[in-house]
Amino acid sequence: MKNSFVELSGRDRALALLDKGTARELVGPFDDMISPHLEPQGIVPESDDGVILMKGQLEHKNALVISIESAFQGGGIGEVSGAKIVAALEQVLKDNQNGTEIYPIIILDTGGVRLQEANYGLLSISEIQNAVIAIKKYVPVIGLIPGRVGSFGGMSITSAILSYLIATKKARIGLNGPEVIEQEAGVREFDSSDKDLIWDTLGTKQRAATGIVDEIVDDSVEVMRDAVTAAIAEKKDAKRTEKADFYLSLLDKLDMSQPLNTTEYRQRYQDVETVAHPIIDAVSTNDEKPKSRGRLWFEKLTGIQNAETNVPTVLQATVGGKTYIAIVPDPKNRFPRVQNGEAGLQEGFAIANVVNKVIKEDADKDTKRPIILVVDVPSQAYGYKEELIGIHVALASSAAAYAKARQAGHPVISFIPGDAVSGGFLAHGLQSNRMIALDDDSITIQAMSKASAARITQRTIAELEEATKHVPAMAYDIDNYEKLGALYKLVKDVSSWDANDQAVTEIKKIIDEAVESARQGENNLHFRYETKIAKESGRVATLKMRQAVADQWHVS
Amino acid sequence: MEKLTFSFKNTKPVQHPVHVGVVASGDLEVIFKPTSAKETTLHIVTGSDGFKEVWQNVLTRFFDRYPLLADIEINDFGATPGVVNLRLTQAMEALNDEK
Long-range pairs for A506-513 at CB < 8 Å and ≥24 separation? Predict the structure, then answer.
């Protein structure tokens, strides 16, 4: 195609958007900033780690284009590429705070987390989301999804947080790729060989009709440039993560036992009558509830027995000046894909409502109340209807709410007695400025199950397990996770299923310390870079990248 | 994955760094950097093991025609000799463009 934007490489896309002769690449191929995690796994690295930063002007306005190269490892976000994006966005934030307007544009062409650097990918993506939310107070953050890979995984959660999304018809947008859903939930849930179904469900046309994408453009450099310029001039803001009541109203009317096709969903999307969906404080009941580590600790920390709210999978209560939130299993839930405690549509939107209410209630208070996340999420929900409706928007809504709360001054503390996996962890956990975990073998902390990760990266499970021995970010256990340096504390002498009185007292004390630590620190996620472990080993590549971007930001 | 190193007694120093290509399936990236050394050194990381001799031949043929003196890095994701030659030629053209 003549002047196609899609067919350009990641670097040429960035150059094509900016005014001729104004572009300057930051931390490019000559700076030797490759991923240190790929070669130990026998994977060829790329000199820019698949992310291109191009600073220049767009119609005479300062702009930074962040372009993800999908041809390299599917545009997956690893430690170095992720830190590159975060560092650049934080410079954009700083400039805007200091009165120099600069507009960030993100070209999304990515499968999400780079599975070969799994837990680094998740950390980085949460840090990207945090920076985007902070920048949106000053300037819009425009996203382009030209297509080839499209936008998937954790970066789709990011896409929902961006101010405005422009896509060509060659793009697809979803949280879980069809292959992963097929792997996790079976071929009857989503047939990954049915290309028509995939495009009808995840393709730009359907997405633009149902609020996931804001504008469809032809695949041409000029058209793309004009669309971005107009979006910036008009200060577009889709406020996609502020529609929890709309979606919860939509979900009320849905019969999960019946199939839902794309045409019918478009109609339902049009017909929604939005009503408020407040989530009540959990109350004690006499009914025995399904056991989970998340429920156990929520009940012990709040003193509420057999806790129950009006959303069966979301517990929340304010006790002793702190708001506690947990996602719990519900074996009879009408959404079958969240019955084991996964984070799904309802969970994301309901939590967003809880957290946004807390922010509002404390808006005029000098001291903002702490929000304590009890984290036990085995994954996000893998389902066809979840993708059709846009589960990534649900997870983005809760992630954005937590980030806003933290940025407003609420200490946001994650306590992890259970699993912390993938999109579930991004939605409920990774936006906290202090993370406390139990040193317990039962905890899984990762980006994807072994079976799915092996399938997507075209390795055997044995090869995958071999790789985890060399790269801690690939591992599934909390002890390897500690090596990344992100934890405030790993509690050695308390186990996940034994919440005895002494253990509960100890955890409460540690939470109080974490709250105090958060109050004294900054409202961002920098704590993760500043622990002893982070500095010495866990985030060395991240810190090096942050320094390089800072050094090159102002040099002309 | 295999790491290969080659040296060539080349004579024409490059003046600017250049970069072409992507580490995509069947493709590679090539980086030329100016050097103060007396010979051209190539550091190659390739996803396809066991092709040292093929690399030697492709590179010898290229440098026989264009004896560029530089530090060269190549990250290869299974490119054919034809693609390798194409990317090297593109890098050389990019050098000429900058003059």
Answer: A507/A297, A507/A301, A507/A415, A507/A436, A508/A301, A510/A436, A511/A301, A511/A322, A511/A370, A511/A372, A511/A413, A511/A415, A511/A436
Chain B positions touching A47 (Cβ under 8 A) are: 19, 29, 31, 73, 75
Distance CA A440, CA A416 (A): 10
Q: Which of B19, B25, B27 sits opposite A29 (nearest CB)?
A: B19
Inter-chain touch A44–B33, beta carbons under 8 Å = no
Q: Is A42 in contact with B29 (Cβ distance < 8 A)? A: no
- Are A163 and A213 spatial neighbours (Cβ–Cβ below 8 Å)? no
Domain at B2-98: CATH code = 3.30.230
Find out whether A425 and A443 touch, Cβ atoms under 8 Å. Answer: no
Secondary structure letter of residue A196 according to DSSP? H
- Which residue from B minimizes the CA distance to A43? B1
CA distance A116 to A114: 5
pLDDT in tens, B1-50: 999 999 999 999 999 999 999 999 999 999 999 999 999 999 999 999 99
CATH code assigned to A10-242: 3.90.226.10
B68 is written with which tokens?
């560029």
Query: % helix / strand / coil in chain B, to the nearest 5?
Result: 30, 35, 35
Of A30, A39, A44, the CB nearest to B77: A44
Domain borders along chain B are 2-98
Q: How far is B22 from chain A (nearest CA, A)?
A: 7
Query: Does residue A67 sit in helix, strand or coil?
Result: strand
> What tens digit of pLDDT does each residue of A371-411 get?
999 999 999 999 999 999 999 999 999 999 999 999 999 99
